[in-house]
Amino acid sequence: MNSYYISDYGISFFAKVFCDYWPGFVFPLLILLSEIYILKTKDQFWKKIMVYPIIITLLTVLNPIIMYWIVLKMSWSDRYYRFYWLIPVAFILACSITDILSKLRNGWEKLACSVLVVLILFVLGVRFPVDSKAENIYKISNEVIEISELIHEDSPENQMPLALYDLSLVPVIRQYDASIRSAMDRGECRGLRYFDVNDKVYLDAAKDDKSYLIIGNINYEYNIDKIRRDMHQRGIEYFIRNKWWFSNSYVDKLGFQWIGETENYEVYKCLYETGM
User: Fold this and answer.
1) 3-state percent helix, strand, coil for the chain, nearest multiple of 5
2) CA-CA 20 to 30 A from 131: which of 83, 104, 252, 276?
3) Could you tell me the sign of the dihedral formed by the alpha carbons of 41, 45, 49, 55, in that order?
4) What predicted TM-score, i.e. pTM, was given to this entire model?
5) Higher per-residue pLDDT: 26 or 189
6) Whose CA is closest to 28, among 87, 98, 83, 111?
7) CA distance linking residue 146 with residue 148, whole number of Å
8) CB environment 246-267: b (16+ within 10 A), e (fewer)
9) C-alpha to C-alpha distance for 148 and 259, rounded to whole angstroms
10) β strands within the chain, DSSP E
11) pLDDT tens string 12-31
């Protein structure tokens, strides 16, 4: 799942999470059709266990009007999609399809219906998330290897460069290349994992003279001069930019030297003016 933040998107946050969670339109449509089928053809027992709970869920934890302030206050942006786990998708679809098949008299009708279900699930754009396999002996993302090579091609031999990168790379870069030091210690990484994007993060970073944590981990265009000063004082030598964060003009103002890129990241050498 992508990390969307309700403070950035407002009420449209719920639409983004919904579209990101479901693999295409097929499953929501099938669930809706199954619910209508149960309402029209089944008895009260079926309705009590397969329809009414879904309606209550839609009116409560999946209701944007009710949940907007709760998600914002509780910093649940990165976990809200888990409420969709409350919908027993497999159970509803399995029961509905089995009931329909049991009512068909001819074998060819049952076969045709089964084939139709398979076509709906696999032909009409359902995308099942599959992690791409690493194509190297280290069994790690090829991007991580590319980033490491870019840094070492630029840095002096036998040096241990200090690099700033976001939390998506924290668990993997040093797993592959322990010579690349992280600009964040374990405590900072652990703390940032539980922060939603809100003013507290900015205020804490500014108060502690650690605004480099903001540019490394939050898509927020903070004061350029303070960012550069804090990164210089920390001695950060390389900045690995998430391509989906920050405008190009903002990155240009940092004045860092671009040395290469991968599919999702850009690698910059941090240049600072003398006397900062």
Assistant:
1) 55, 5, 35
2) 83
3) positive
4) 0.48
5) 26
6) 87
7) 5
8) beeeebeebebeeebbbeebbb
9) 12
10) 162-164, 181-182, 238-242, 257-261, 265-269
11) 989 988 988 886 777 888 88
